[in-house]
């Protein structure tokens, strides 16, 4: 028996179809007498979340708040893409900034570390997307744009608790694809050298695709 579901564009949970064979004239059905199949949803769902609260980056040490959190709910299926938006990043010496994203399952990606050298940032908007064409610059001025996660510092970058210990990934797809989007997402920002400071005036946001 072939079950041929109609294709649509509705975002919906997986559904089941059950075939049951009943006794009839001249025959008796054995055991089992039924079979259940799953119709898997194949449509992409986009779920967004944001936290616009100002993040204060001190002159050395963890930011306030630490972490800044976003809670995602209602996402169906598993992750195929995670994009992170940082709004209004300012810092006198951006090379000091270490920024870590941690998902609901504990998967973690170092979004930026030791990038931009001494080129002062003022209200710069950054997007981190694994499909971006370039990474952040190491020794030249960072400008607004879309970049892949970028780490120019030592492999042993560390974040104080409650951030999870390393090692930290640098690929959004490898870290989060196939995991659940629902739950708490945390952005840990740490200034690793005194004396310069900064802020993320508009907070941050997530765009997550699931299938």
Task: Produce the secondary structure layout.
Blueprint: E1 15-20, E2 34-39, E3 45-51, E4 55-57, E5 61-62, E6 68-72, E7 79-91, E8 97-102, E9 108-113, E10 121-128, E11 145-147, E12 150-151, H1 172-176, E13 183-191, E14 198-200, E15 204-210
Parallel strand pairs: 9-12, 10-11
Antiparallel strand pairs: 1-2, 3-15, 4-14, 5-13, 6-13, 7-10, 7-14, 7-15, 8-9, 8-13
How would you describe what is shown here?
By secondary structure, the protein is mainly beta. The chain is built from 1 helix and 15 strands; from the N terminus they run ββββββββββββαβββ. The strands form 3 sheets. Strands 3, 4, 7, 10, 11, 14 and 15 form a 7-stranded mixed beta sheet that branches. Strands 5, 6, 8, 9, 12 and 13 form a 6-stranded mixed beta sheet that branches. A two-stranded antiparallel sheet has the order 1-2. The longest helix has 5 residues, at 172-176. The chain is elongated and about 90 Å long. The two termini are 27 Å apart. The model has no long low-confidence stretch (mean pLDDT 93).
Tags for this model:
6-stranded mixed sheet; 1 helix; single chain
Number of DSSP-assigned strands: 15
Point out poorly predicted stretches: none
Helix-strand pattern, N to C?
EEEEEEEEEEEEHEEE
Terminal CA distance: 27 Å
Structural class: mainly beta
The main β sheet shows up as: 7 strands, mixed
Summed up:
Strands 3, 4, 7, 10, 11, 14 and 15 form a 7-stranded mixed beta sheet that branches. Strands 5, 6, 8, 9, 12 and 13 form a 6-stranded mixed beta sheet that branches. With 211 residues, this protein is mainly beta. Helices cover 2% and strands 41% of the residues.
């Amino acid at each position: 028996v072939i079950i041929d579901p109609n294709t649509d564009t509705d975002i919906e949970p997986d559904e089941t179809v059950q075939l049951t064979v009943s006794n009839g004239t001249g025959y008796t059905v054995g055991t089992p007498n039924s079979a259940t199949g799953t119709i898997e949803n194949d449509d992409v769902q986009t779920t967004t979340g944001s936290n616009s609260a100002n993040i204060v980056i001190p002159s050395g040490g963890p930011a306030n708040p630490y972490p800044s959190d976003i809670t995602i709910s209602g996402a169906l299926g598993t992750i195929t893409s995670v994009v992170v938006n940082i709004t209004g990043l300012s810092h006198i010496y951006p090379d000091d900034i270490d920024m870590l994203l941690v998902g609901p399952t504990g998967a973690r990606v170092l979004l930026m570390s030791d990038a931009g050298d001494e080129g002062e940032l003022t209200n710069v908007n950054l997007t981190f997307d694994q499909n971006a064409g370039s990474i952040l610059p190491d020794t030249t001025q960072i400008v607004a744009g879309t970049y892949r996660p970028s780490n120019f510092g030592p492999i042993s970058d560390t974040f104080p608790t409650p951030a999870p210990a390393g090692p930290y990934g640098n690929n959004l797809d490898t870290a989060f694809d196939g995991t659940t989007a629902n739950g708490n997402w945390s952005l840990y920002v740490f200034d690793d050298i005194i004396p310069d400071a900064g802020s993320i005036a508009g907070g941050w946001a997530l765009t997550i695709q699931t299938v």
